[in-house]
Design a protein that fits this description.
Belongs to the autoinducer synthase family. The chain has 219 residues and is an alpha+beta fold. Helix content is 29%, strand content 24%. The chain has one domain: Gcn5-related N-acetyltransferase (GNAT) (Aminopeptidase, 3-Layer(aba) Sandwich). The longest helix is centred in the N-terminal third of the chain and has 21 residues, at 12-32.
Length: 219
């Protein structure tokens, strides 16, 4: 698998990959998860936060097909947590917003998780998110997801702190929380998933795949 870090404006190849990402997000979040508020006639999941501030971490397989993705948005810029889901936040952020980022739109291609609970694409994305956060000098990542994310994050050795009590959303208990970014957190998730090499572009180590949980989504 290969990690692509895509920002807007992007080159032609990255733009094509980003468009595939928008189409696949719509399939996952609207058609499969039923998030009707995201439905668009063009079949693309694009919102106000898919802008020049956003960084998209996209995973492709050996054939170049998109198999998973995530979005990272700076917390000192408009973001999903502090606008759409600000009602979930009752605690204080652990540090200045300039030291944090909001993690959204985590998904794995449905064909890669159908009939099984674990997928190597999920594991790769978890490692990639922590690698990217460290490379940017961040100290924490926020997210909004089902409460099961806390259980999974803890299972991979991450320190996760809720920002408020869970509430029901789309029939599921949903919570806002933050993840501590550290070298230890990266070491822990690599150990649990079995991914021992860096995934950031430029690394020339041989590819490694390992199991990861694909049973939840980050908004």
């Amino acid at each position: 698998m290969k990690l692509h870090i895509v920002r807007d404006p992007a080159d032609l190849q990255s733009r094509e990959l980003l468009e595939q990402n928008f189409l696949l997000r719509h399939r996952v979040f609207v058609e499969l998860e039923g998030w009707e508020a995201l439905r668009r006639p063009d079949g693309r999941d694009v919102d106000a936060f898919d802008n020049a501030d956003a960084t998209h971490l996209l995973i492709t397989d050996s054939a170049g097909a998109l198999v998973g993705g995530s979005r990272i948005t700076p917390l000192d810029r408009p973001n999903l947590l502090q606008t759409v889901f600000n009602g979930l936040v009752h605690g204080e952020l652990p540090a200045h917003p300039s030291l944090g980022a909001d993690w959204t739109r985590f998904y794995v291609h449905p064909d890669r998780r159908e009939g099984r609970r674990r997928a190597p694409e999920s594991a790769a994305l978890f490692c990639a998110v922590m690698e990217y956060a460290l490379s940017q000098g961040l100290s924490y990542i926020t997210f909004v997801s089902s409460i099961y994310m806390l259980e999974h994050g803890t299972a991979v050795g991450w320190r996760i702190t809720p920002l408020g009590a869970p509430v029901m959303s789309d029939g599921k208990p949903t919570i806002a929380a933050w993840i501590e970014v550290s070298e230890q957190a990266l070491s822990n998730v690599r150990r649990v998933t079995g991914i021992s090499r860096a995934l950031m572009p430029g690394d020339r180590s041989p590819p490694v795949t390992a199991p990861g949980n694909a049973g939840f989504y980050v908004r």
